[in-house]
Amino acid sequence: MSDRPIEPQRLYRQIAKQIQTLISSGEFAVGSRLPAERDLATQLSVSRPSVREALIAMEVEGIIEVRTGSGIYVKSLGKRGNSKTSAKNKTLEWGPLEVLRARYLIEAEIAALAAKNATANDLKAMKLALKGMQKEATAGRVPLDTDIAFHMAIANACANSVMFDTLDRYLQARTGHLFERLGDYFESPASWAAAISEHEAVLQAIDKHDPQGARKAMQKHLRQAHKRFSASWRSAPSRS
After folding, report:
1. Please, which residues have CB within 8 angstroms of residue 27's CB and are 6 or more apart in sequence?
2. Tell me: the pLDDT tens digits for 133-192?
3. pLDDT in tens, 48-102
4. In contact, 230 and 140? CB cutoff 8 Å
5. Angstrom distances, CA of residue 90 to CA of 51, 85, 87, 102, 178
């Protein structure tokens, strides 16, 4: 018998498994519409953000289909099985809203430290990344790489390698299938314009070497990001 500790399954995976069990049992037949997110959360005694992460994962796996403005429908019974994944893949499987909640805690302090410690070169890197975001957004492209560069420039300025490495792992999740799919629904030119404006406020506070202002600006940005990803499905653009 192995003495290796059993790794706990991610909450959204547990929820997805519960929903899939209901599908397999016939409670939700293939082709039928699932209850609303709020009702599923109540039925399963979990939070709505966790249900959303579970539904996104199930859509990526082809078990359900999201029809914007209509609802979420059962597409297939899905497949059983749980293959081993690498540390990197495990990071990519982190729930997007869970990542944002974790970032809210750590990145606010990273911003405050950056406001204390940022050098001229650090500020130059932040401004360059922000300019890149603005350029990409104006051209109609998703400024994901420059967004990550902006946050990592702040982490570099905080002068704490552990916090830098921690944020690096958090941001790796931004390139995963779950974040990508969630972004397909809830990221838009308007949402990126709002995010860029929030970044500007963070940079302004760091440039003024205002730790409290930087902390509050980063908290506002990540709170708004979580709110954007938690919006009603009906607010998402139709996908044909």
Report:
1. none
2. 999 999 999 999 999 999 999 999 999 999 999 999 999 998 888 898 888 888 999 999
3. 888 988 999 899 888 999 887 788 899 987 765 444 444 455 667 788 898 999 9
4. no
5. 19, 6, 5, 16, 12
pTM of the entire structure? 0.82
CATH T-level topology, domain 11-74: Arc Repressor Mutant, subunit A (1.10.10)
d(CA 206, CA 18): 45
Instruction: From the options 1.10.10.10, 3.30.70.1350, 1.20.120.530, 3.40.50.2020, give the CATH code of 87-235.
Output: 1.20.120.530
C-alpha separations of 29 from 15, 67, 81, 150 in Å: 18, 17, 21, 46
List the chain domain ranges. Answer: 11-74, 87-235
Chain centroid, CA 31 distance in Å: 29
What is the helix (H) or strand (E) element at residue 224, kind and residue range?
helix 211-229
